[in-house]
Structures are given as structure tokens and as C-alpha cells.
């Protein structure tokens, strides 16, 4: 049940992912989804019954898919053609390596402090980390997807040809 919960949540979010196209403030989408992931993991760490733990993991799966969708879109939209391959490679290293580092941290702290403290603390640490990142890089919070705002003006990426486009941040 626990192994299936995260993919189940991601699958449900995937069925609803068409609604993501309406979200213009994708930076906020990433930040809020990462915070939701951390809170869901912390909730899993605090959950008593197995079914409640599975619900929190399913919520983590939803949050992970949402964050992943917006991160991928931002990577493709805001990166120049010349840098896109390098950025994608770096992205893969982070996505593949980050969870393994977290596994090492959870395993070590779980052995020292117990699994409940390690998992709950890890989830809360994610929330603290995303708040620190946004406070250091507030432009990310304001990142807008390309398109038009309510007044018909260009929003997100300027109308320059692909590769020369630079993200325009919300004011």
C-alpha cells in the first residue's frame, strides 16, 4: 500500500494535469507544490494508521507531479537553445541524485533518532528549504509562463524568437 500510494497520487494528478495549462504563475506553482510535498511527507511521518500514511503519500505524489510539470515547463521556456541540453542534464542529475541523498540522510537519521523523527523532520526541512530559496531568489516566485495576461499584453517570455527569449517576471 505504501509503495503504491505515491504513484497513485501522481496518476490522479496526471488525469487532472490539463488544468495546469491555465496557471501562468508557474514559479508559485513549483514553490507551493514543493511545500505541499514537504508537508505531506511530514504528515506521513506523523500518521498513525497505515491508511492515513498512505493518504499522505498519495498527496505527496500529487504534489510531486504538479511540481515536476511546472519545473519541466519552466526549464523548456526560460532556457536558451544553447543551454537547454546542459540544463536538462543538470536537471536529471538533481532529480535522480536528490532523492538518493535524502535516502542517505533519512537512513542515517532514522537509525539515530528513529524513523518518525527522520521522516517528519525531512518533510519539514523541505518546507524550510523552499522558503529560504524563495527568500534568496524572489524572482522565481514571480516567474510567469508565456502567454497573454488579462489585458492582452504579452506575459511570461517576451515575444522574441525561441532561443533569444528571456523570461519576463511579473511585477
Automatic annotation (TrEMBL):
<feature type="region of interest" description="Disordered">
    <location>
        <begin position="148"/>
        <end position="171"/>
    </location>
</feature>
<dbReference type="InterPro" id="IPR036259">
    <property type="entry name" value="MFS_trans_sf"/>
</dbReference>
<keyword id="KW-0812">Transmembrane</keyword>
<keyword id="KW-0813">Transport</keyword>
<feature type="domain" description="Major facilitator superfamily (MFS) profile">
    <location>
        <begin position="1"/>
        <end position="171"/>
    </location>
</feature>
<keyword id="KW-0472">Membrane</keyword>
<feature type="transmembrane region" description="Helical">
    <location>
        <begin position="30"/>
        <end position="48"/>
    </location>
</feature>
<keyword id="KW-1003">Cell membrane</keyword>
<feature type="transmembrane region" description="Helical">
    <location>
        <begin position="6"/>
        <end position="23"/>
    </location>
</feature>
<feature type="transmembrane region" description="Helical">
    <location>
        <begin position="117"/>
        <end position="134"/>
    </location>
</feature>
<keyword id="KW-1133">Transmembrane helix</keyword>
<protein>
    <recommendedName>
        <fullName>Major facilitator superfamily (MFS) profile domain-containing protein</fullName>
    </recommendedName>
</protein>
<dbReference type="InterPro" id="IPR020846">
    <property type="entry name" value="MFS_dom"/>
</dbReference>
